Amino acid sequence: MKWTHVGWLLAGLLTASASLRAADVTLTVNGKVVARPCTVSTVNATVELGDLYT
């Protein structure tokens, strides 16, 4: 195994271990997906997702 592969592996492990410790996450989704000639008028909405587990 080349040293560059070991470096990438180490970086991946460090990233994974840091992400496992994250407790509070805010997910914000903005945008509109519509088929073309449709016109959709929307307002801002807040959706409670509750507790998400992986």
TrEMBL record:
Keyword annotations of the record: Signal
Residues in the signal sequence: 1-22
Protein name (Swiss-Prot/TrEMBL): Fimbrial protein
Organism: Klebsiella variicola
Lineage: Bacteria, Pseudomonadati, Pseudomonadota, Gammaproteobacteria, Enterobacterales
